[in-house]
Amino acid sequence: MTHSFRMAITRLVIAFNRARDWLIAAIVLSLLKLISLLPATSASNSVDRAARLIGPRTSRHRLALFNLKRAFPEKSDEERQQIALDMWGNMARLAAEYVFLDQIFDFDPDATEPGRIEVEGVDIFLKLRDSGKPFIVFTAHTGNFELLPIAAASYGLDVMAMFRPPNNPYIARKVLAARRTSMGHLVPSRAGAAFTLARRLEAGGGVGVLVDQKFHKGTKTRFFGLEAQTNPLLAKLVRQFDCEVYPARSVRLPNGRHRLIVEPAVTIPREANGGVDVAATSQMLNDKVESWVREYPGQWQWFHDRWNIKHMVK
């Protein structure tokens, strides 16, 4: 095979992938546009029902059930199937809620009547806003986790959040544009992201990190008793800046409501010399996320290849 022929094949494959991504993005974004014509509650309920029908027919559903069987061997097949269906419903609602962020996020710190959003840990938000010290907030892909930085902003708390863009570049651009309107500073999780977060902490600011994703060449930890690799970034930032670390999560409630919870600062594991124990800190993050997922298993993304076992699923 000549070099010119290989180059032609490569260009053809790249063009095909771009065309496929564009077509998928066009379909997804058109559906979201149609959803925007409905009232927020009706749209959320409709996509939930649709996802519970479509999701089980995808290969990702098989991965979700495989993950669930390993994580919850004590549960029945029916219980695990129900968790997977709840997961698809949650993911569909999350997608639809991008369209209605302004309507959904009705939280007012001074309101006397509850709205769609309730917040636990208001005192922590205010403490972080007024302290002038660097801090890290970590969360996971549970409920509508996108609401957390919006809640922080409602208290005047500016948090620089690192996120993983969708693989589809056309969808990624649209999602990033939507996030920028209401979620403050955003840092895509690519080369240079750690340096950007470090500069924010050095300036006395706050950063937000999602900690439940697979990370190649990460720290070896356990998650649901199974070996998993975890990004050591948070532990290394704490080691460098000696900042406090706060867990935060979003819980989806019935009737289109959400509870956002900010917990007190965690105690960071230390080595004998007083330095941050990176491995133990990474494990602590996993343990906290696992406790959240066990409480609301249908609100976590089981189709994500957290344990790097996708190749084992048939």
UniProtKB/TrEMBL annotation:
One of its GO terms (cellular component) is plasma membrane. Keywords: Acyltransferase, Cell inner membrane, Cell membrane, Membrane, Transferase. Its main location: membrane. Its EC number is 2.3.1.-. One of its GO terms (biological process) is glycolipid biosynthetic process. Pfam families: Lip_A_acyltrans. This is Lauroyl/myristoyl acyltransferase. It comes from Hoeflea phototrophica (strain DSM 17068 / NCIMB 14078 / DFL-43). The keyword Cell membrane applies. One of its GO terms (molecular function) is acyltransferase activity. It is found in: Cell inner membrane. NCBIfam families: PRK06553.1 (NF005120). InterPro entries: LipA_acyltrans (IPR004960). Coiled coil: none annotated.
